[in-house]
Amino acid sequence: MMHFVESKNIYDIYREIKSPINLFVGAGISVPEPSCLPLTLGIAKSILRMDWFGGDERFPVEDDNLIQRIAKKVRMEHLLSIYHKWRGHDPGNLITQFGEARPNYYHKKIAQLVKEEIVQRIFTTNFDLCLEKAFRDEEIPFQQIIDREDYLNPDKNKIQIVKLHGSVVLSEGKYFTKGLITTLESISREIPVWKASCLSKNIEENGLVCIGYSGNDSFDINPVLRAGRNSKIAWVFRRQPDPEDYREAIQTLEMSPKSQAIVSDIPTFLGEKQKLKMPENDFAFKPVVNLSERFHPSIVLGKILEESGEYEEAKEYYLNVITLSTGSNYWMVEILDLQRSWAVCYYETGDYDKTLELLSVGQMMLLDYKKRVSEKKGGILPAEKMLILEEELLYGEEFMVTYKMLNNMEKVQSMEKTLFKTLNELEKLSGPQTTHRSRLLFNSISVDFHLVETLGKTDFVEAKEYLENSLEMKKEIGDLIGTILVLGKLSIINLYLGDIPAAQDVLLKCIVTIRKANTYVATDFPQKIKSILSVVFFQHFTAGYCPVNTRVRWDTIDKKLMQKFENSLNDLLFNIPVENLDRKGFIEFIERESDLNHILRSIRNSVLRKDNLLKDEVDEFVRKYGISVITPDDKILQYRAVLEIMNPEDTNGYYATKYGQWEAIGSQYEKAGDYFQAAASYQNALDGAENMMIDIMFTQVVKDHGIEYLKQAIDRVSSKIGMSGM
Known about the structure:
The radius of gyration is 30 Å and the shape is globular. Helices cover 60% and strands 6% of the residues. Helix 22 (480-496) runs antiparallel to helix 23 and helix 29 (633-645) runs antiparallel to helix 30. The chain has 726 residues and is an alpha/beta fold. The strands form 2 sheets. Strands 1-10-9-8-2-3-5-4 form an 8-stranded parallel β-sheet, with helices on both faces. A two-stranded antiparallel ribbon has the order 6-7.
């Protein structure tokens, strides 16, 4: 449990470290006047009010309750991703406006701390130039570190302001941007080596104090902060932090024994009592898009409503726009996109007939547009041909998945062939289409899943190959939401194929990506993933623990026990660091979690109470196999007892115990003829053997021999599954 300190300030930290410190500042310090820069809610308000659009025909979203719901579900980078996907509009055109902000008390106080030699370096995810302006006012020489070239050419006579997510820069009297990380696509990439090195080296030497920072940068910054287990990190929270809102920050602190959490208003922490004035008016972007460009700005707002799961509001919004908008003001493809997006909202809410109706209207408009451009003098231009093919792909995919839901599989299968032909034609015209191909591969697998449910047949191996190809493409283009959806589907394929370890591994990768993304994914998708996770880990912790020749079926256990297991597993999923959410780490957490194991034991014990036949067979098994109870429970209880007294830091001891105990348990199951649970037990032993470290007793030769023996044992008993009468 994290302990919070309430009486420290930055001077106390300086005295503890005994050297000038590194300061990490987040967006919170640029909110008070006169800076007046926005957090996610302010950015959402300005985008949804269409402050950035300079045309007369405006369809803003002005419902404050709706905007607040969206801001809670969708992070800033998600909003700017949607803006960017709209015909490639550059979020930098919005961010450059942060360059005009003036420094407030915080920036000036930090400049003073630099002059006092309390602070020696500043790290920030902020884009604005408020610190730089405050330093100029105090005549403090500084150097912006934005890219690798800056890092490799430091000026030792200047204080460094390391802009980890890029920055606005001033050049020849104009504001530009450099190295921005503002979208989901950009935040999903690993941190460059130079940034990681710069951050970790300085933390190790002089510690780090975080102010005004949420700690939700789980792809790039958090892994670096957590890598140094002896890092001295002090994190300042204005009030006792909500564990849900600041989960990642708290876990970062818990992973380093020398870290500390401080509850204090920031002015007091910086050494002065000040009451700062907050902005009276909402932040507003200046217009950067004009009607003359003929792009329909309402697509951005509609997509934000969709991607935050507000489908009913999105339906009304699209209806209003399509009814009142003057279509002649915009490119035809913009109107087609509005119509298709409107149809998608009905698909997401389960009204498939209405979806087909709206798609059919859009398809008629597309055919009419295709006819008109083909008949004009000079014929169809390559750019027009490309746009038409793209719209045919997009509309075709929506038709295909909708027909799937209506069980019209004949239509679906014929459309799938046509769509791949259209995609090939588009790629011949304009080169590889990674976004389109990855989406089509994913949607075609969604159709295959429906075939499983309705016809009971599909080629799982081919489906897995499709999804793995789609996954690689989505990672390549940085499609974070798409990556999450594909991982979820791929885990189910592995489950169908009977590869439980692979299903567990892929599911955990999906959960990790959901947690790191920290934004809305899809309607109830995370909950579906958690349910699947419960099933595969339930099977892992009941196979190998149950009475001989008995399996606990997930759909037959007591509903209260099922709910307890799901809740406990869910708590673990979100309360342990993402670094431990690989298969190996998560299984170790479950095995050492006493509450969860108590639930599992109750479930396993319920099998004996329900099955009277087993009770009649106890004596026979005791006499025949020398097992004191019908399960190898004595060995399992011994295993759990060892885990409970073992030093949590003794990882090798844990894996050695796992290897030895589960090999013995597996041999008991095999001797009793329960080959299914024997295979599961040997797999547990193999996990232990593979993760054990080499030492003077457990040499590489011994390890290789043990692994080979267990693999042969798994193959041996797996070939007999079905012979045991289960």
